[in-house]
Amino acid sequence: MIEIQDLDPAAPFPAQLGEETGPVVLVNTFIAPDGRMGEVLAAWADDAAYFRSRPGYVSTQLHQGVGASHVLVNVAVWESAAHLRAAFSDPDFQAHLDRYPDGTVATPHLLRTVAVPGICVA
What we know:
This protein has helices at about 15, 35-50, 80-90, 90-95, and strands at about 5, 25-30, 55-65, 70-80, 105-110. The protein is an alpha+beta fold and about 120 residues long.
């Protein structure tokens, strides 16, 4: 089963899900146990298909570390934290978390875009 850890103790993921804000970007870093990347990818793909069917989902992109890295990073856009909260807290989704191999660690964190003049827009 997957272990979910907070990236920033000052803003735990459950508290972030309670925020009334949007749109939001979910950045979720996964560490796969040695030799089990394929299982983590398969479990993630099932989760991504579930989320894609939920209200408020906009998009997702998965990134994999190069070389012998055990890291996957999911970047997903949602219309609001409330939409993600509803999807994440659904018992059907929660029941799927046991498909990840033991030793898998995830650190989900919600972000919002920031405008930096001349560099990026919000």
